[in-house]
Specification:
Layout lengths: L5 E2 L1 E4 L15 H13 L4 E5 L5 H13 L4 E7 L2 H10 L6 E8 L2 H8 L3 H16 L5 E6 L6 H14 L3 E6 L6 H14 L7 E6 L6 H10 L4 E4 L13 H10 L6 E2 L7 H12 L20 H9 L19 E3 L5 H10 L7 H17 L3 E2 H7 L12 E9 L7 E8 L2 E8 L3 H13 L4 E9 L8 E9 L2 E9 L2 H18 L12
Helix pairs in contact: 1-2, 1-10, 2-3, 5-6, 7-8, 15-16
Bound molecules: 3-methyl-2-oxobutanoic acid (KIV) and zinc ion (ZN).
Length: 517
């Protein structure tokens, strides 16, 4: 970042708003892995969750706060005493902590959801900021649904919460209703009209219901916002939030337009994108800006010719600047434990114990027997389900045999280890994967509904590992299981069992914006 430029703070809310996308729930260990990757990317603030939602959310925020040293860790709290004290408690281990408290200010939310008068909303906002300041001097306040709030009232609330000690004022377009020029004007007006606006950083948080989250965020930056709230791959409630990678690369690429820049290490973008899509099972569309598989692919002959003569004829960014790299063979069958450990360290993958390292190394050896060239992506997949460690694994696959033949009904025979007992299972199915899932269900009877099944090739080549995501739902709880193997039926069985194991661990949780805590 050039020294003459102001800093644009990047506030990532993948672990909080991102996780509010139906189906994107993450375990504590998955959140820690994502938080570590965000820290390596030099994200300024990581919103780790909503601690009052459930004991699991509390533990996740605490775990992130305990391991992250270089980014500020933030916790969300409604403008309620119990929320703020839970947030403060969860953030205790953080090297740098922020509490983000919010209350709705639009007429429709105040009348219909909160059933409170504007004066009562203002008083509660002020009390909450004062309470949050008892835990940290880094307090963010959001007038929820600001995009549909009355400007005069917003100005009153913002002035009062800055006086009460809020250091960041975040203006959310909660329902994705705004249009870029209008939202930019709102930010400009607020900064101009609120008398103490110079004592806070103005931030924006845009939802993508009209596909305008990134445009609204960038328009706000041009009008004085110096923090943007965003998520990896644009994950988030309903149509999602502004995509971090699009905001950061727009600002970086168009330094002729923007008066500010981020301090992000953009070469980490792809790694974060893959990690989040792998964990949540929300795959990235091929034509998605920056991180889609086609974002830097030049299919048309004219384009290829131009790019070969001069890259800038058709490319405004370099693929390697956002972390795209050609698949590189990194390890093979003869690589030893030290080479394995070193490469994993270079990929920022750490093991909680020697046992975990040994287990993963032995899985690496099994993989190297089946697949001669091992890429970084293969190594990352090896640890994709590390969050469910051996002692949490109630269901394990011991062996699997599938028969699939033209004109015959596919059949799966397997042995499962269920809580230490070996159990045989067998079933027919529409295909080998269906037969494997039916065989598991014939002995587990989980009463879950399969919501999503997806397979992605991790690298190119027919010997590539297939990475499978299985999403299961039971009584409103949703979990994602992952599995990877060169044999996709095996990968599918691993993913299904991984999801069942997670279902046993997951806890019911509340939603911050629907008043159901
Ligand atoms: O969209 C929204 O308004 C939010 C707030 C909690 C900031 O996510
Ligand atoms: Zn939101």
């Amino acid at each position: 970042m050039s020294t003459s430029k102001e800093k644009l703070v990047i506030f990532d809310t993948t672990l909080r708003d991102g996780e509010q996308s139906p189906g994107a729930s993450m375990t504590r260990d998955e959140k820690v892995r994502i938080a570590r990757a965000l820290e390596v990317m030099k994200v300024d603030v990581i919103e780790a969750g909503f601690p009052v939602a459930s004991p699991g959310d509390f533990e996740s925020v605490k775990a992130v706060a305990s391991v992250i040293k270089d980014s500020t860790v933030c916790a969300l709290a409604r403008a309620l005493e119990k929320d703020i004290s839970r947030a403060g408690e969860a953030l205790k281990p953080a090297a740098s902590a922020r509490i983000h408290t919010f209350i709705a200010t639009s007429p429709i939310h105040m009348q219909k959801k909160l059933r409170m008068s504007p004066d009562d909303v203002l008083a509660q906002a002020v009390r909450s900021v004062q309470q949050a300041r008892q835990f940290t001097d880094n307090v963010e306040f959001s007038p929820e649904d600001a995009g549909r709030s009355e400007t005069d009232f917003l100005c009153r609330v913002i002035e009062a919460v800055i006086d009460a000690g809020a250091t960041t004022i975040n203006i959310p377009d909660t329902v994705g209703y705004n249009i870029p020029h209008q939202f930019g004007d709102l930010i400009k007006t607020l900064i101009e009209r609120v008398p103490n606006s110079d004592r806070a950083i103005f931030s924006v948080h845009c939802h993508n219901d009209l596909g305008l989250a990134v445009a609204n965020s960038l328009s706000s930056v041009l009008n004085g916002a110096r923090q943007v709230e965003c998520t990896i791959n644009g994950l988030g409630e309903r149509a999602g939030n502004a995509a971090l990678e699009e905001i950061v690369m727009a600002v970086r690429t168009r330094q002729d337009v923007f008066p500010c820049d981020t301090t992000l290490d953009t070469t980490q973008i792809m790694r974060c994108s893959k990690l989040v899509s792998g964990i949540t099972g929300f795959s990235v569309q091929p034509n998605k800006a920056i991180v889609g598989a086609n974002a830097f692919a030049h299919e048309s002959g004219i384009h290829q010719d131009g790019v070969l003569k001069n890259r800038e004829t058709y490319e405004i960014m370099r693929a390697q600047d956002v972390g795209w790299s050609a698949n590189r063979i990194v390890l093979g069958k003869h690589s030893g434990r030290n080479a394995f450990r070193t490469r994993m360290k270079e990929l920022n993958i750490e093991f909680a114990s020697e046992q975990e390292l040994n287990d993963t190394f032995s899985r690496f050896k099994d993989l190297a027997d089946k697949k001669h060239e091992i890429y970084d992506e293969d190594l990352q997949a090896l640890v994709a389900d590390i969050g469910v460690t051996a002692e949490h694994e109630h269901y394990k696959l011991v062996s699997l045999k599938v028969c699939s033949e033209t004109g015959e009904t596919p059949n799966a025979d397997m042995v499962l280890d269920i809580g230490g007992d070996e159990v045989n299972a067998s079933a027919d199915g529409g295909g080998p994967v269906d037969a494997a899932f039916r065989a598991i269900e014939s002995v587990v009877n989980s009463e879950t509904q399969l919501q999503l099944y997806s397979v992605n090739a991790i690298t190119s080549g027919t010997d590539a590992q297939g990475e499978v995501t299985v999403r299961l739902e039971k009584g409103g709880r949703i979990v994602n299981g992952q599995g990877a193997d060169t044999d996709i039926v095996l990968a599918s069985a691993y993913a299904y069992l991984n999801a069942l194991n997670k279902m046993l661990q997951s806890d019911p949780r509340a939603h911050p914006q629907r008043g159901d805590v």
